[in-house]
Amino acid sequence: MAAPGSGPPRSPATRAGRWVVVVAFSVLLAFPFYWMVITTFKQTSDLYDTTHNPFIFGAAPTLDHLRLLFGETLFLRWFLNTTVVGAAVVAITLALAVPAAYALTRLTGSWGPRVGMGIFLTYLVPPTLLFIPLSRVVARLGLQDSLWSIILVYPTFTVPFSIWLLMGFFKSIPRDIEDAALVDGLTRFQAFLQLIIPISRSGILTVVIFTFTLVTQEFVYALTFISSASHQTVGVGVPIYLVRGDVYFWGSLMAACLIASLPIAFVYNLFLDRFIAGFTVGAVK
């Protein structure tokens, strides 16, 4: 007898169809990583030989592309710069977006959603329209060719989206929880720290992952504000120094992409359930 609420048993065809869909999506999503691994360890002659199968090794694997990446470029420095900038921007984004989203959700009445939507619309402004005025701001502050320039600029597009995202999450939390805490003697700030923040961990984690991903992928601002190689981030340093004229160092490019993407892919998969909840809980509520 089936358990209550378990629904009718699925037919073998339904189960097979589900597995076909799962396997197809798994192959589709894993293929870029497989391609990066293959390209990283293929010899250059093997890469450009059209008679060889591009999906397998036609010659013995090589480490030459990794030697080029780590020996003739500043990849480790770029990776460290990206990590430092990402951590700083995440901290700034959380410090500004979390209290702002809570205030717009709970403390502003009917104007909260309108202001929140107005803030979100600023996220839709293309960077190509903003980098010129922002470059004037960076120049006035004397931050040219410094990591502080992009640490200052990146929150201009991470904070608006994060506020909009967290507003939807905070709206899903019943007000009764805070009212009960206020009756028990907590101040609103204490209720915010002790109740709302722990409940909102999925939304906050989503903001962290989203913000760090944007920082690693951003190109326009980093290219505009930073000129020296030692201050570049991965998103700018790799294409600039591994594409020389019409010569593409494909093996080293793929190695850099693989190394830079693996930590983010690991975090995405580790916290996948919370990440999905952070994006969907407001809509479901």
Would you give an account of this structure?
- This protein is mainly alpha-helical and 285 residues long.
- It folds into 2 domains: 13-62, no CATH class; 68-284, MetI-like (MetI-like fold, Orthogonal Bundle).
- Helix content is 74%, strand content 1%.
- It is built from 15 helices and 2 strands.
- The chain has helices at 12-41, 44-48, 64-71, 75-106, 111-123, 127-140, 147-153, 155-171, 175-183, 188-199, 201-217, 220-225, 234-241, 250-270, 272-284; strands at 243-244, 247-248.
- A two-stranded antiparallel ribbon has the order 1-2.
- The protein is flat.
- The two termini are 33 Å apart.
CATH fold naming of the largest domain: MetI-like fold
Overall mean pLDDT stands at 83
Work out the radius of gyration: 24 Å
CATH-assigned homologous superfamily of the largest domain: MetI-like
Query: What is the CATH architecture descriptor of the largest domain?
Result: Orthogonal Bundle
In sequence order, what are the helices and strands, one letter per element? HHHHHHHHHHHHHEEHH
Q: Bin the strand percentage.
A: under 5%
Query: What is the CATH C level class of the largest domain, in words?
Result: Mainly Alpha
Overall number of strands: 2
In total, the number of domains comes to: 2
Main sheet summary: 2 strands, antiparallel
The best one-word shape is flat
Describe the protein's topology:
Elements lengths: L11 H30 L2 H5 L15 H8 L3 H32 L4 H13 L3 H14 L6 H7 L1 H17 L3 H9 L4 H12 L1 H17 L2 H6 L8 H8 L1 E2 L2 E2 L1 H21 L1 H13 L1
Antiparallel strand pairs: 1-2
Helix pairs in contact: 1-14, 3-14, 4-5, 4-7, 4-8, 4-11, 4-13, 5-8, 8-11, 8-15, 9-10, 11-14, 11-15
